[in-house]
From TrEMBL:
Phylogenetic placement of the source organism: Bacteria, Pseudomonadati, Pseudomonadota, Betaproteobacteria, Burkholderiales
Transmembrane regions: 16-36, 84-104, 116-138, 144-161
Location (main, coarse): membrane
Family: Belongs to the chromate ion transporter (CHR) (TC 2.A.51) family.
Membrane topology designation: Multi-pass membrane protein
GO CC aspect terms: plasma membrane
Keywords assigned by UniProt, alphabetized: Cell membrane, Membrane, Transmembrane, Transmembrane helix
Protein name (Swiss-Prot/TrEMBL): Chromate transporter
InterPro entries from the UniProt entry: CHR_Transporter (IPR052518), Chromate_transpt (IPR003370)
GO molecular function: chromate transmembrane transporter activity
Subcellular localization: Cell membrane
Amino acid sequence: MAPGTGGRPVIDTLPWLFLHCLTLSLLAIGGAVATVPELHRHVVIEHGWLSDADFTGSVALAQAAPGPNLLFVAVVGYNVAGLAGALAAMSGMLLPSTVLTLVVSRWGSRRRDTRGVRAFVAGLAPVTLGLVLATGWLLARPTLQQPAAWLLVLGTVLLAWRTKLNPLWPIAAGALAGALGWV
Protein backbone atom coordinates (compact mmCIF):
# COMPACT_ATOMS: atom_id res chain seq x y z
CA MET A 1 0.00 0.00 0.00
CA ALA A 2 1.23 3.48 -0.83
CA PRO A 3 0.96 6.26 1.75
CA GLY A 4 -1.42 8.38 -0.31
CA THR A 5 -3.98 5.69 -1.15
CA GLY A 6 -5.95 6.03 2.05
CA GLY A 7 -5.04 2.51 3.14
CA ARG A 8 -6.30 0.91 -0.08
CA PRO A 9 -3.99 -1.28 -2.15
CA VAL A 10 -2.25 0.55 -4.99
CA ILE A 11 -3.74 -1.90 -7.48
CA ASP A 12 -7.21 -0.52 -6.65
CA THR A 13 -6.07 3.09 -7.00
CA LEU A 14 -4.11 2.90 -10.27
CA PRO A 15 -6.99 2.30 -12.71
CA TRP A 16 -9.01 5.18 -11.25
CA LEU A 17 -6.03 7.51 -11.32
CA PHE A 18 -5.25 6.53 -14.93
CA LEU A 19 -8.87 6.91 -16.10
CA HIS A 20 -9.32 10.26 -14.41
CA CYS A 21 -6.11 11.62 -15.92
CA LEU A 22 -7.22 10.20 -19.27
CA THR A 23 -10.38 12.32 -19.15
CA LEU A 24 -8.56 15.34 -17.69
CA SER A 25 -6.21 15.27 -20.63
CA LEU A 26 -9.06 16.42 -22.82
CA LEU A 27 -9.60 19.46 -20.55
CA ALA A 28 -5.98 20.58 -20.73
CA ILE A 29 -6.80 23.56 -22.93
CA GLY A 30 -4.02 26.05 -22.38
CA GLY A 31 -1.79 23.48 -20.72
CA ALA A 32 -1.97 20.80 -18.08
CA VAL A 33 -1.97 23.34 -15.25
CA ALA A 34 -5.56 24.18 -16.20
CA THR A 35 -6.56 20.74 -14.89
CA VAL A 36 -5.27 21.37 -11.35
CA PRO A 37 -8.70 22.22 -9.83
CA GLU A 38 -10.34 19.05 -11.18
CA LEU A 39 -7.39 16.82 -10.25
CA HIS A 40 -7.50 18.37 -6.77
CA ARG A 41 -11.22 17.60 -6.47
CA HIS A 42 -10.65 13.98 -7.51
CA VAL A 43 -7.49 13.23 -5.53
CA VAL A 44 -8.12 15.27 -2.37
CA ILE A 45 -11.86 15.82 -1.96
CA GLU A 46 -13.44 12.80 -3.64
CA HIS A 47 -10.96 10.02 -2.79
CA GLY A 48 -8.85 11.47 0.04
CA TRP A 49 -5.67 10.03 -1.48
CA LEU A 50 -3.75 13.20 -0.55
CA SER A 51 -4.30 16.04 1.89
CA ASP A 52 -4.84 19.56 0.61
CA ALA A 53 -1.35 20.53 1.78
CA ASP A 54 0.26 17.48 0.13
CA PHE A 55 -1.51 18.22 -3.16
CA THR A 56 -0.51 21.90 -3.13
CA GLY A 57 3.04 20.93 -2.19
CA SER A 58 3.15 18.45 -5.08
CA VAL A 59 2.09 21.10 -7.58
CA ALA A 60 4.47 23.69 -6.12
CA LEU A 61 7.41 21.27 -6.19
CA ALA A 62 6.74 20.35 -9.81
CA GLN A 63 6.36 23.98 -10.85
CA ALA A 64 9.63 24.91 -9.15
CA ALA A 65 11.50 22.17 -11.01
CA PRO A 66 12.81 22.88 -14.48
CA GLY A 67 10.83 21.28 -17.26
CA PRO A 68 7.29 21.26 -18.56
CA ASN A 69 4.27 22.30 -16.47
CA LEU A 70 2.96 18.76 -16.88
CA LEU A 71 5.40 17.46 -14.26
CA PHE A 72 2.89 18.16 -11.49
CA VAL A 73 0.80 15.23 -12.75
CA ALA A 74 3.72 12.84 -12.21
CA VAL A 75 4.44 14.25 -8.73
CA VAL A 76 0.78 13.98 -7.68
CA GLY A 77 0.62 10.44 -9.11
CA TYR A 78 3.81 9.51 -7.27
CA ASN A 79 2.47 10.88 -3.99
CA VAL A 80 -0.75 8.92 -4.47
CA ALA A 81 0.68 5.53 -5.45
CA GLY A 82 4.46 5.64 -5.84
CA LEU A 83 6.24 5.06 -9.13
CA ALA A 84 3.29 3.14 -10.56
CA GLY A 85 1.03 6.11 -9.72
CA ALA A 86 3.36 8.51 -11.52
CA LEU A 87 3.34 6.25 -14.58
CA ALA A 88 -0.45 5.79 -14.50
CA ALA A 89 -1.12 9.53 -14.12
CA MET A 90 1.36 10.61 -16.79
CA SER A 91 0.33 8.01 -19.36
CA GLY A 92 -3.32 8.85 -18.73
CA MET A 93 -2.63 12.54 -19.20
CA LEU A 94 -0.40 12.16 -22.26
CA LEU A 95 -2.15 9.50 -24.31
CA PRO A 96 -5.39 11.18 -25.45
CA SER A 97 -4.02 14.69 -25.71
CA THR A 98 -1.10 13.54 -27.83
CA VAL A 99 -3.28 11.58 -30.25
CA LEU A 100 -5.91 14.32 -30.39
CA THR A 101 -3.28 17.02 -30.93
CA LEU A 102 -1.72 15.15 -33.83
CA VAL A 103 -5.05 14.48 -35.54
CA VAL A 104 -6.60 17.92 -34.97
CA SER A 105 -3.49 19.91 -35.82
CA ARG A 106 -3.16 18.14 -39.16
CA TRP A 107 -6.86 18.59 -39.89
CA GLY A 108 -6.87 22.23 -38.71
CA SER A 109 -3.77 23.26 -40.60
CA ARG A 110 -5.45 22.29 -43.84
CA ARG A 111 -8.55 24.31 -42.89
CA ARG A 112 -7.09 27.17 -40.81
CA ASP A 113 -8.63 29.87 -42.99
CA THR A 114 -12.19 28.59 -42.66
CA ARG A 115 -14.67 30.50 -40.55
CA GLY A 116 -15.37 27.57 -38.22
CA VAL A 117 -11.73 26.92 -37.36
CA ARG A 118 -11.06 30.63 -36.72
CA ALA A 119 -14.16 30.84 -34.48
CA PHE A 120 -13.11 27.73 -32.55
CA VAL A 121 -9.61 29.10 -31.92
CA ALA A 122 -11.02 32.48 -30.83
CA GLY A 123 -13.49 30.75 -28.50
CA LEU A 124 -10.72 28.87 -26.70
CA ALA A 125 -9.18 32.07 -25.31
CA PRO A 126 -11.84 32.73 -22.61
CA VAL A 127 -11.98 29.03 -21.71
CA THR A 128 -8.21 28.96 -21.24
CA LEU A 129 -8.25 32.15 -19.18
CA GLY A 130 -10.99 30.79 -16.91
CA LEU A 131 -9.16 27.51 -16.31
CA VAL A 132 -5.88 29.28 -15.56
CA LEU A 133 -7.62 31.68 -13.12
CA ALA A 134 -9.30 28.73 -11.34
CA THR A 135 -5.89 27.07 -11.01
CA GLY A 136 -4.32 30.23 -9.61
CA TRP A 137 -7.12 30.61 -7.07
CA LEU A 138 -6.82 26.98 -5.95
CA LEU A 139 -3.06 27.21 -5.49
CA ALA A 140 -3.22 30.55 -3.67
CA ARG A 141 -6.09 29.56 -1.37
CA PRO A 142 -4.03 27.92 1.44
CA THR A 143 -2.13 31.16 2.10
CA LEU A 144 -4.92 33.70 1.62
CA GLN A 145 -5.57 34.04 5.37
CA GLN A 146 -2.36 36.05 5.56
CA PRO A 147 -2.38 39.73 4.51
CA ALA A 148 1.15 39.45 3.14
CA ALA A 149 0.00 36.63 0.85
CA TRP A 150 -2.83 38.81 -0.52
CA LEU A 151 -0.35 41.59 -1.23
CA LEU A 152 2.03 39.15 -2.90
CA VAL A 153 -0.69 37.63 -5.10
CA LEU A 154 -2.17 41.01 -6.07
CA GLY A 155 1.26 42.51 -6.70
CA THR A 156 2.23 39.58 -8.90
CA VAL A 157 -0.99 39.82 -10.90
CA LEU A 158 -0.56 43.56 -11.40
CA LEU A 159 3.08 43.21 -12.42
CA ALA A 160 2.28 40.45 -14.90
CA TRP A 161 -0.63 42.42 -16.33
CA ARG A 162 0.90 45.89 -16.55
CA THR A 163 4.62 45.30 -17.14
CA LYS A 164 6.97 43.12 -19.11
CA LEU A 165 8.93 42.29 -15.96
CA ASN A 166 10.53 38.86 -16.00
CA PRO A 167 8.25 36.50 -13.98
CA LEU A 168 11.28 35.25 -12.05
CA TRP A 169 11.29 38.49 -10.00
CA PRO A 170 7.83 37.94 -8.44
CA ILE A 171 8.76 34.27 -7.91
CA ALA A 172 11.94 35.38 -6.12
CA ALA A 173 9.90 37.85 -4.03
CA GLY A 174 7.53 35.03 -3.07
CA ALA A 175 10.45 32.77 -2.16
CA LEU A 176 11.97 35.53 -0.02
CA ALA A 177 8.63 36.21 1.69
CA GLY A 178 8.30 32.49 2.44
CA ALA A 179 11.87 32.20 3.70
CA LEU A 180 11.28 35.17 6.03
CA GLY A 181 8.08 33.56 7.34
CA TRP A 182 5.76 36.26 6.00
CA VAL A 183 3.65 33.76 4.03
